Amino acid sequence: MGATDVAAIIGQVELLLAEEILSERVEAAVQKLLNVVEALSADKKSLADEVQRLLKLLEQKKKDKTTGGKGDDQQQKSSSDHSSEKRRRQFPDSQRRPSQDRRSFKDLPVHHTIECPVDSATLPPDAVRLADEIVMVQDIEIQPQNTRFQRHVFFSAATQQTFRGPLPAGYDRGDFGANLRALIVALKYCGNMSEPKIGEFLANFNVQVSSGSLSNILTTTARAFEPDYHDVFLAGLSSTTYQQTDDTSARVQGKFWHTHILCNPFYTFYSTRPRKDRLAVLAMLQDTDQPRFRLGFETRALLQAEFLPLPKKWWAKLVALGEVELASFELKHLMNEWFGDRNQPLRTALEQAAAIVYYRHQTAVPVVRTLVCDDAGQFKLLTEKLALCWIHEGRHYEKLAPVAGRHADALAAFQDRFWNYYATLQDYRDGPTEAGAAQLRANFDVLFATRTGYEALDDWIAKSQAKREELLTVLSETAVPLHNNAAELGARVSARRRDVSLHSRSVRGVRAMDIFTTLVQTLKKLGRSAYAYFRDRLSGGLPHPPLAQSILQAAASG
Fold first, then answer.
1. Using CA atoms, how far apart are residues 344 and 338, in angstroms rounded to an integer?
2. What backbone torsions phi and psi does residue 36 show, to the nearest 5 degrees?
3. Where are the beta strands (DSSP E) in 110-226?
4. The pairing of beta strand 242-252 with beta strand 370-373
5. What stretches in the chain show pLDDT beneath 70?
6. Which secondary-structure segment (H or E) carries 60?
7. For residue 4, which of 47, 33, 43, 41 has the smallest C-alpha distance?
8. 8 A C-beta contact, residue 383 and residue 370
């Protein structure tokens, strides 16, 4: 029996029940039976989705054997669309700017001016010349430019030394000039082209570059941009009191890694790491591969309050240590001495608590005050405040698929109230007041005290109610966005690159990917040309203003 048949039968039952008034006990019994039907229907749908996923995976494996496809590592997208964008966009977003035709306001540099005269033979005798009509036509010219340098060479017999005339800046880094190297990087990270396609494109213009040289340019060139990458990270952290974060899967040398995204309106930072646990997030927030840890009174208090009760034996050991700061290898050695292969939960809790306390006290990078994210456990406890994404919260309700009419009506009614409340939060950001905040808190309590009798819906409402402080962070921090779309869009950039190049063949390659993706996406947010930036840096110059300075200037101007 399909879902449509079940829904039809439930509809018929509800019509029959509506013909007479039921006692409270009968009504309660009917409601329980309907919830059982909803639970069974949800289980059936979950199993059907899993069967469909496995069938797709099996079909992909069969194709791989004959076509050399991407293999079973490629993530299968769910056939269900749980996006809440359509519903949310019914309400105005105070931060959304109206779309404009860029051609109507963007000034274009003029490289050539060509006059287009009228044939005088076609003009009547009384024709008078008026103001010229200006027509702008954009075009581009791509052609190779090969330069032969004749380096003067001298040899000194007395010193047994050879002296060569130096190459100009930008031409002293191999067989390819700054313009070509910048173009290759831009095609990869702006155009999202694969290396074979970049080679094919350049071959059309008689540029002779091997696949090995292409790979080397894309990986070794990144070293020159390491300082820019870290400066962008520091400037981004300093530009707002909050940061947004998300992560997406990555493939490195055939293994699953995770690309972490950190961003705000002025920059986007990428850091790909083997894990996505709390320690990995803390390392990303400090842009380091060598996290440090702090043991002492504050660590013990955090362990007791947020992790798990500390047995007296280990409490005494921690007290005996006093206030100490340890490197990663030092803490590992200490934990091995204490626990060996045992007490893994306690060991993990201790490591995470010590890393959090160190992060809060370190001064090497700005400490994030508020983190905007989803409800994943690895993001909790790291910052003073946590702001949860309302769009993520709304998706939980989109996933519900009731078969009983009364449950569908209850869900639709609650979702309308949910998104109406979201709209009032957006309005509050434009004109915050203490009275307005108090009213919104009261309205939140009323909204999420709703109970409908539809158990699956009521469970999610109760879960949302438990996240009250995190969902209402905007009432005390009005600059904080209500959704995490910026970080999700950053993650989508990595996902689209994964579609083109399934994985990175080396750690060096994934580091280059993080550096260039960070710079390209940040330059895009600032309205600057990535190609021009790369060209200027690779030719030995320093773009003005520096990228980190542009971030701080954009933040200062609002």
1. 11
2. -65, -45
3. 153-156, 161-164
4. parallel
5. 1-20, 22-23, 25-27, 30, 37, 63-106, 542-543
6. helix 24-67
7. 41
8. yes
